[in-house]
Amino acid sequence: MQKQRILTVHPKTKEEFDALKAFMKALKINFEESHKEDVFELSEAQKKILEERLKADKKDFIPAQKALNKLRQKYEL
Length: 77
What we know:
This protein is mainly alpha-helical. It contains three helices and no strands.
């Protein structure tokens, strides 16, 4: 299976944004729009979990890709 490639662009002006959007539509490239207020923020519970993981013994470390693969297998994703 071929990996999907993702390109993230950060236009500085409305004109740049509109031009990029028109270009993508003209080439029939699928894209998603998001706005600054859509930026993900961690909840306090998530921050607490991450802080606990930072304090964990490094010998228990699993690379992110390996952890994702385990989750995919466990939950059949």
